[in-house]
Design goal:
Blueprint (H helix, E strand, L loop, with lengths): L1 E10 L5 E4 L6 E6 H4 L8 E7 L7 E6 L6 E6 L4 E4 L9 E6 L5 E5 L8 E8 L8 E3 L1 E4 L2 E4 L13 E7 L5 E2 L3 E6 L6 E4 L10 E5 L13 E7 L3 E4 L25 E4 L15 E2 L4 E4 L13 E9 L2
Length: 313
């Protein structure tokens, strides 16, 4: 027998979604109401189920064939649900041999990481100006990965050594303060950050840009986000006459290096927690729903309904 503990709904923003859970939960069910009645091509996931204690990747996924109402069921190997019982500790140190001076930068490192993992890089010989930054990684193979949030093509040389540790995809306070890796000179500045972010259009953000990073005119400015992608946000700050943003030389680090950052700054007309990630502590336990056409957080605009159950003895 199962007892319904919690239920609610949300409108997907196309980003991962976290649900705080009671410690005695047993299972969770998420339904994509928007996609349940469609026959889109490609096919779409419309229902997702996970049971506490099941191995990662064994969750059930219900989806439709391309352009058809035929229902398919499989186990989701893409990590649609990730359950956190405690704040994750950093992983062991992993050593690599290179980071390219390219857009995007590519790291050579024997590893067992996965796409969208978040890692901290340090000991970046030749690129000490990024030592200590965290990055979301992509295009992961056993021999390396890509840093989509870092354009290092203007760096004077590639890195010849690097160390990494896997860290939690979330910080104890969300949304996170982000590391800035690029700011364009434009009528509306485009800001690139090192990790995938959950900032939203109409959210206010505040910048801290040390003199070592150039574009000192951006320091302590607050702007409104007008557009977002996974790694960028466009803000209503005219930076076209500002000096160029640039990392300092590796040889000046760490004495001259202070990272540029961007942080949440609320909204001009109140604070709508349904539209903008609320700045709050991280509650344990929680479950993270991955976003995407075949994942339980859905795609932008999808209406998602979730229910959490407890199995009675």
């Amino acid at each position: 027998m199962f007892t319904l503990l919690m239920q609610d709904s949300f409108i997907s923003t196309g980003s991962a979604y976290d649900i705080d859970l009671p410690g005695d939960w047993s299972s969770i069910e998420v339904t994509n109401v928007t996609q349940a009645g469609t026959t889109q091509t490609p096919g779409r996931g419309f229902k997702f189920e996970a049971v506490k204690g099941d191995p990662e990747g064994s969750q059930l996924r219900y989806f439709k064939s391309d352009g058809s109402n035929a229902v398919n069921v499989d186990t989701d190997s893409s990590g649609g649900f990730t359950y956190y019982e405690s704040f994750p500790a950093p992983g062991p140190q992993v050593s690599g041999t290179a980071i390219t001076a390219a857009n995007p930068a590519v790291v050579t490192m024997t590893n067992t990481f996965s796409n969208n993992d978040r890692v901290v890089l340090y000991g970046t010989t030749g690129m000490l100006q990024i030592a200590g930054m965290s990055f979301t990684i992509s295009s992961v193979s056993g021999s390396g990965f890509t840093l989509l949030g870092l354009d290092s093509s203007a760096f004077s040389a590639p890195a010849t050594a690097v160390k990494a540790r896997l860290v939690s995809p979330v910080d104890p306070v969300a949304p996170m303060t982000l590391y800035v890796t690029k700011i364009t000179q434009a009528s509306q500045a485009v800001v690139t950050v090192s990790t995938k972010h959950d900032y939203q259009v109409n959210q206010l953000v505040h910048f801290s840009v040390p003199s070592s990073m150039g574009m000192q005119q951006m320091d302590q400015k607050t702007g409104k986000i007008v557009a977002v992608t996974d790694y960028t946000m466009t803000v209503d700050i005219n930076s076209s006459s500002f000096s160029a943003f640039a990392f300092p030389a590796s040889s000046l680090s760490p004495t001259s290096r202070l990272f540029a950052t961007v942080a949440p700054a609320g909204q001009r007309n109140g604070y709508n927690v349904d539209q903008v990630p609320f700045h709050s502590g991280l509650f344990i336990p929680f479950i993270r729903l991955a976003a995407g056409a075949q994942s339980p957080a859905g795609s932008s605009g999808d209406v998602m309904v979730w229910k959490v159950w407890r199995k009675e003895n």
